């Protein structure tokens, strides 16, 4: 078994990037002075998901199943906010974050459906 839990270095890097994305977005949501309490709470939860991705990066094959929570969270956020943000009434920044969420959700699904192959 490799030091990456047999998932390969690429997946480990992918989950590090996902963690960094969530850490940055979460911190921004918590620390922006104009952010209401609800926004700060959401930022905290986004940051907490970053911790999950950080742990998965340490051994994707061992901890990878928890990525289903990430899929649900990211697809849910895109589904809830996407129509407004991409319908012309949203901000470009939020749209970019949602696009990132959609890409990570896709990557998470690819990992989840192919990880058995990564262990071979």
* SSE string: HHHHH
Structural class computed from helices and strand pairing:
mainly alpha
Largest sheet: none
Mean pLDDT: 89
Short descriptors:
120 residues, mainly alpha, 5 helices, globular, SPW repeat-containing protein
Question: What would you note in describing this structure?
Answer:
- With 120 residues, this protein is an all-alpha fold.
- It has one domain.
- It is built from 5 helices and no strands.
- The mean pLDDT is 89.
- It comes from Altererythrobacter litoralis.
- Keywords: Membrane, Transmembrane, Transmembrane helix.
- This is SPW repeat-containing protein.
SSE diagram, text form:
Elements: H1 9-31, H2 37-58, H3 60-63, H4 67-89, H5 92-118
Keywords: Membrane, Transmembrane, Transmembrane helix
Transmembrane segments: 12-33, 39-56, 63-81, 93-114
Protein name: SPW repeat-containing protein
Put the structure in a nutshell.
With 120 residues, the chain is mainly α.
């Amino acid at each position: 078994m490799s030091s990456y839990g047999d998932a390969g270095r690429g997946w480990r890097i992918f989950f590090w990037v996902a963690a960094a994305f969530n850490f940055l977005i979460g911190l921004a949501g918590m620390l922006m002075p104009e952010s209401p309490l609800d926004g700060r709470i959401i930022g905290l939860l986004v940051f907490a998901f970053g911790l999950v991705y950080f742990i998965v990066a340490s051994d994707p094959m061992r901890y990878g199943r928890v990525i289903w929570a990430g899929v649900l969270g990211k697809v849910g956020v895109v589904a809830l906010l996407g129509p407004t943000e991409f319908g012309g009434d949203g901000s470009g920044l939020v749209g970019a974050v949602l696009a990132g969420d959609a890409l990570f959700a896709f990557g998470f699904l690819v990992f989840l459906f192919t990880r058995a192959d990564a262990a071979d």
